[in-house]
Structure formats: structure tokens, C-alpha cells
Amino acid sequence: MPLKVKITLAVLLVVMGGLFAYVLSEAATGPDQTSFSKPDYVERLIPSSGSEALRQATVGVDLREGYDAYLVINGITIQNSATNADDDGLRKAPSLGTVEYDPGPDRRITELNSPKQCVDAWVWKKLDGPTTAVQVNWCFEVT
Fold first, then answer.
1. Signed CA dihedral, 60, 64, 68, 69: sign only
2. Residue 44 contacts by C-beta under 8 Å, 6 or more apart in sequence?
3. pTM of the entire structure?
4. CA terminus-to-terminus distance, the chain
5. Which positions ≥6 away from 106 have C-beta within 8 Å?
6. CA gap 112, 107 in Å, rounded
7. CA–CA distance, 47 with 111 (Å, rounded to integer)
8. pLDDT beyond 70 at 67
9. pLDDT over 70, % of the chain
10. By 3-state DSSP, what share of the chain in percent is helix, strand and coil, each rounded to 5?
11. CB 72 within 8 Å of CB 122
12. Lowest-pLDDT range, 42-51, 76-85, 108-117, 125-134?
């Protein structure tokens, strides 16, 4: 075999090996969370962006003190208010800063969409009121 062919084959093997190693490392580390930038007043997304969750998983946000929110899941607004006689099932724990919703059989949302679910949290500073709400959107995989 001529030397040029051997060198070409060696270079191709090195490139293919590097590509294979890159693909394996990406598969092992999971989804890239660094591309999603949440606002500083959102301490945690539930489930986190890009993660995997079950169809009945709790959905919500963990907010800094002084903030409130409601959720929009599958185009359905989930909120509790003085004018809403039907409790939507939104759980708020002001002392913890969490706003959460659990899908279920007798709820407006029975289960999360599979294979991908996106959620909107409309967040506002309590002193400013809900008319100043800002949208925070994230997606995750559902199994």
C-alpha cells in the first residue's frame, strides 16, 4: 500500500475517532443546560429545562422573595384568584417562594404532553402586580 494511502487512512481514523468520542461525551452528559438563561428572580424551574419528567410530574417555579406567578400549561392558564371560584389546583407556598401544579385525573390538565412539554410561568414583583408579569418559558422531555 502506498504511503499516501496509509497517511490518508490514518488521518480519517483519527477524525472518526474524535467524532465518535464527542458523540459519546454529549450522550453521557445529557441536555445542554447552559444555553437556557433564566431571570435572576427565578431560583428554580420545576422540572428543570431540558430534563426528563413523568406525565404526572409537578410543574412550577421557585421564586425569590417578593415575586408571584401563575402558569400556562398546554395553553391553559392555571391560577387562583379572588374571582376564580374554581380552585385551579395551583399551590403557592409564599414562605418557600414556590408556585406549583400537579396534573391529575380530576384536574384541568390530566397529564403532561409527551414527548415534549413546554410551560410558561408569568412572573411579577408582588409590589407591582400581575399586570407587569413577564413570561418565563421552558421545555422538558416527558416519558
1. negative
2. 61, 62
3. 0.70
4. 52
5. none
6. 12
7. 14
8. yes
9. 75
10. 20, 35, 45
11. yes
12. 76-85
Which range among 9-23, 35-49, 80-94 shows the weakest confidence by mean pLDDT?
A: 9-23
The confidence score (pLDDT) of residue 33 equals: 42
- Looking at the chain, list the stretches that DSSP marks H as alpha helix, in order from N- to C-terminal side: 3-29
pLDDT at 11 over 70: no
Q: Fold for 42-142, please state it.
A: Immunoglobulin-like (2.60.40)
Q: Which amino acid, 112? A: L
Domains in the chain: boundaries: 1-30, 42-142
- Which residues, 6+ apart, have CB-to-CB distance to 64 below 8 Å? 40, 41, 42, 43, 97
Q: Is it true that the peptide bond before 105 is cis, omega within 30 degrees of 0?
A: no
Residue 84 and residue 80: Cα distance in Å, rounded? Answer: 6
